[in-house]
Design brief:
It is an enzyme of class 4 (lyase). The structure is a single chain. This protein is 46% helix and 17% strand. With 356 residues, the chain is α/β, with parallel strands linked by helices. Helix 6 (127-133) packs parallel to helix 9, helix 7 crosses helix 9 (207-224) and helix 10 crosses helix 13.
């Protein structure tokens, strides 16, 4: 599987991963290597990873953070910064982020800000991180329950995707990552969408190629618009409402928190409906999208009170401008439209349609 060149880095796959990491270490000779893991990847992924890393005489320190979106916070960043300082990390140190989207987002942010920036490598271990979180240089943490409010765009030295780590992943996490792959089809490639929604015709061995195809799609978008001034916004389809739903379910004790992909699946269903009302998406394609997503994702009950609170959270979305909420919607499958404005009444109508 060929590597993929991004704007400032390279994405390597499987057989190339450890060769390239070891080559990078030998060439750049970092003063020290730090590996950030969470409680899950510490046990499930770290032993295999360390067994294939050739560091020579360079010291390796492992730093562990709690797993879960609720720990993607500045407080955890502070703990990692302090650990780096305590272990005498300098500007020639290397941070390797071995984990899912929380680890790669937070670790990338820590590296980008420690001593005004040290080198980092992302080694994504979840499907979500492989196809989305580790590619494109977005780093950051949540502000309370508000998703990714604090961060910078700064690519690491490389992304190293070893799909064997997926063997350690619970099925629920695999499903969560699949939502981002579906999104890539909806915003960029109808044929890819069709392939993903007919997986019964595929073998599990096809997954590597599908992951590769998703990375190619995301890379094409972010390479043409690295700082999200225009085209890169299309990657937010399903995320305007999806992030608000994820935040609401995360901060309410009487709700069961949703995984990122579960919330984004709901967001895509809602925003597909909005697309039929404002962008000309046909009812036929709405039905195709709805059926395609509900093949994999179970609907979640969202009450009228929930809806009001979720709509209120939209004001914090990062795409907003001058107090106006901006959506990414679809004119057709594979044809997104950015900067769409939608009334709260229409959003409520979308929720009613979803519940029915």
């Amino acid at each position: 599987m060929n590597s993929i060149s991004t704007k400032n880095a390279i994405v390597y796959f499987n057989s190339e991963v450890y060769t390239e990491i070891n080559k990078y270490i030998e060439t750049t000779k970092p003063s020290k290597i730090f590996i950030l893991v969470d409680t899950n990847t510490h046990d499930a992924c770290l032993p295999n990873f360390l067994g294939q890393i050739e560091s020579g005489n360079i010291e390796i320190e492992v730093m562990e953070m709690p797993n879960g979106e609720e720990h993607k916070t500045i407080d955890i960043c502070t703990g990692v910064w302090e650990a780096l300082s305590e272990y005498n990390a300098d500007r020639k140190s290397l941070l390797i982020n071995l984990g899912g989207g929380v680890v790669t987002d937070l670790g990338g942010f820590v590296a980008s800000t420690y001593m005004r920036g040290i080198s980092y490598i992302n080694v994504p271990t979840s499907l979500l991180a492989m196809v989305d979180a580790s590619v494109g240089g977005k780093t950051g943490v949540d502000l309370g329950a508000l998703k990714n409010q604090i961060g910078v765009i700064n690519e690491g030295e490389m992304v190293a995707i070893d799909t064997s780590f997926l063997d350690t992943l619970p099925s629920k996490e695999m499903v969560s990552g699949f939502a981002e792959m579906l999104k890539h089809g909806l915003i960029f490639d109808k044929n890819y969408w069709n392939t993903l929604t007919h997986l019964e015709a595929l073998d599990i061995s096809d997954l590597d190629q599908l992951i590769y195809d998703s990375v190619v799609i995301k890379n094409k978008v972010v390479t043409s618009d690295p700082t999200e001034q225009g085209l890169r916004k299309i990657l937010n389809f399903g995320h305007t409402l999806g992030h608000a739903i994820e935040s609401y379910f995360l901060e309410n004790a009487d709700k069961t928190p949703l995984l990122h992909g579960e919330a984004i699946a709901i967001g895509m269903l809602l925003e597909a409906y909005l697309s039929t009302k404002t962008c000309g998406l046909s009812n036929e394609e709405l039905e195709i999208i709805t059926n395609g997503i509900l093949k994999t994702f179970t609907k979640v009950k969202i009450t009228e009170n929930d809806q009001k609170a979720i709509i209120n959270l939209l004001k914090y979305d990062k795409k907003n401008s001058h107090g106006v909420v901006k959506f990414v919607l679809l004119e057709a499958i594979g044809q997104p439209k950015i900067d769409c404005v939608v009334s709260n009444e229409l959003i409520t109508e979308a929720f009613i349609n979803y519940n029915n």
